[in-house]
Amino acid sequence: MISVNEFKNGLTIEVDGDIWRVVEFQHVKPGKGSAFVRSKLKNLRTGAVQEKTFRAGEKVEQAQIDNRKMQYLYADGDNHVFMDTTTYEQLELPVEQIKNELNYLKENMLVNIIMYGNETLGVDLPNTVDLKVAATEPGIKGDTASGGSKPATLETGLVVQVPFFVNEGDVLTINTQDGSYISRA
């Protein structure tokens, strides 16, 4: 058991039979009444985000989550195959479970698979990934780096807004949290 006063971002807890990750939290001490903790939690089974308020000092169960380093191998129909880099054991995950993560996954990429006991909860991506531009409109002479943006389709099919100077074949660093362009790699 862990007190809600010890919350920190990324902590995994078990509430109402579900596994949740703390996305944000805020300790609130109103002038009148008792203190409480306002939190934003992400359900690791469904991906849903929910706001929940706890009384200060309330206890919740801490979930023991294992992160297994695995390599993304290939797509096999509606499943995607990952391989444990130490035991060479293979794991198949359905498309529905990793639909958002597929926008950032390339073959042979190393990722962490989130496990709760024997249950696979999903894929934990790195904060940034480098992806190649598959298609975009060519830049026009006179376009400036800060003068706007255009859509670019990346090698995984993800479409992001990029500056005008980005061309096909460029490798870009993309933020996996919100799918935004960071820089050229």
The helix count comes to 0
CATH second-level architecture of the largest domain = Roll
Q: In terms of per-residue confidence, which ranges show pLDDT below 50 for 5 or more consecutive residues?
A: none
Class of the largest domain in CATH? Answer: Mainly Beta
How helix-rich are the residues, as a percent range? Answer: under 10%
- Tell me how many strands there are: 16
Q: What can be said about this structure in brief?
A:
By secondary structure, this protein is mainly β. The chain has strands spanning 2-3, 12-15, 18-28, 36-43, 49-55, 59-62, 66-76, 79-84, 90-94, 110-116, 119-124, 128-136, 150-154, 159-162, 171-175, 181-184.
Q: SSE layout and pairings?
A:
Elements: E1 2-3, E2 12-15, E3 18-28, E4 36-43, E5 49-55, E6 59-62, E7 66-76, E8 79-84, E9 90-94, E10 110-116, E11 119-124, E12 128-136, E13 150-154, E14 159-162, E15 171-175, E16 181-184
Antiparallel strand pairs: 1-6, 2-3, 2-6, 3-4, 4-5, 7-8, 7-10, 8-9, 10-11, 12-13, 12-15, 13-14, 15-16
